[in-house]
Amino acid sequence: MTPPDLKSLSRRSLLAVGLSALAAPGAFAAPPPGGRLTFAVFRGKDKVGEHVMGFARAGGGLTVSTEVEMQVRLGPVPVFRYAHTATERWRGDSFVSLTTRTQTNGKVEQVTAEAAAAGVAIEGPGGRLTAPAAAAPLTHWNPAAFSRPLFNPQLGKMMRIRATRVGPDDVQLASGQTAPATRWTLRGEAEIDNWYDGAGAWAGLRGKLEDGSIMTYRRV
Prior knowledge:
Blueprint: H1 3-14, E1 36-43, E2 46-58, E3 61-74, E4 77-91, E5 94-104, E6 107-116, E7 119-124, E8 127-131, E9 136-137, E10 150-151, E11 161-172, E12 178-188, E13 191-196, E14 202-208, E15 214-219
Parallel strand pairs: 9-10
Antiparallel strand pairs: 1-2, 1-15, 2-3, 3-4, 4-5, 5-6, 6-7, 7-8, 11-12, 12-13, 13-14, 14-15
């Protein structure tokens, strides 16, 4: 896979990835023990970065922070750099707001989204739009959101994607061990599998890149 394919996947799906999301509603995911999720990110067999999420409760609300760093090298030369930060706020099972900043090989993109009675006001690189009031960002940690219209948190655009709960499956961790989990598939604009552990916490991800190679998240 060439670096532009990785860029395209990052922009279109992994950190975003639908108007057509039709999953059955489920219980809202609880924050993981310790309030932190860390994933090692692989392209094929090569580790290319890390994805870290923090969860903090205050005043009846939940704030989820995300930091992602990726770098692809050809030999000793970096040919692709990617950094993404996000702050996502929820109150109960209601989405409240999101701000993101993404830098891809020096190009910066920013998104803001805020929920209101009339809908979710989203402003991104492509301009402004009003999403359905039930819309939520596709940040993967919460499978209950798969029943909602989903928007791309990096590009600020609605997505066409369907989510399906496949059922029990094992997920590989960064340690090399496997753990029991539940697998969901996302299909449409992207081809992504997500795994969630017995407590409902995000446990892994596998996404197919445009050249057919695979990106994998393995929980640390």
